[in-house]
Design brief:
Radius of gyration: 28 Å
Strand order of the largest sheet: 3-4-5
Order of helices and strands: HHHHHHEEEEEEEHEE
Number of helices: 7
Shape: elongated
Distance between the termini: 8 Å
Number of domains: 3
Length: 213
Amino acid sequence: MDQINKLSDLNYDNVKNELFDEDWNLKAKAFFRKYRNVLAQKDVPMDVINALCGNNDGSEELKVLPDAMSQVASIDNLFNGEIARQIIRVQSPGSAFIQRSIWLMEGHGTFGGRSLNNGQKLKMVNEEGSMDCVLSEDFFVEYDENGYPYFKLGEDIVDGKRKRHYFTKEVTGEDGKKRRKVMSFEERRQWYIDNDLISGIKTGETEWHNAES
């Protein structure tokens, strides 16, 4: 989250330097030239576009001030939205995707009789500058050809060799034979907490621990 904020700050500085002077006065001609195509794509009448932006003859003069137009409210909304997208949209390869959990952002969630996130609401920006979120276990787990779950984001090192970390344990049946049993969801979840993958109370501790952002 902190890195996304820094990228947004960079976008903010770029927009400010391009469209405003040092005293925050709008560079009107540069502003309307930049967003001429936006106006056209939103079906703003050409007479309004030409009045704001000038004709395509190289002229830089504003013919009519926006405040003098009957469409000033819709034009304001259009530009506000476009500038907000330019600043907030992260300019990086791929994209930054954030899913906001209304369920836990605005209420206290429970699942199977157990409170989630220690009974606390999720925060858009927590104490560490990160966003709280709910992750599906599919983010951590894949299954092998026998249906056994293993941790897909890392491996164990055994005798110098990399091996899958399986979420299974060895148990002894009533017949005395040892069998491989899949760990319960609660056991897997505790492993995620103990390994700093998700927030929670670590084994043998009593205090809530926030996972690294």
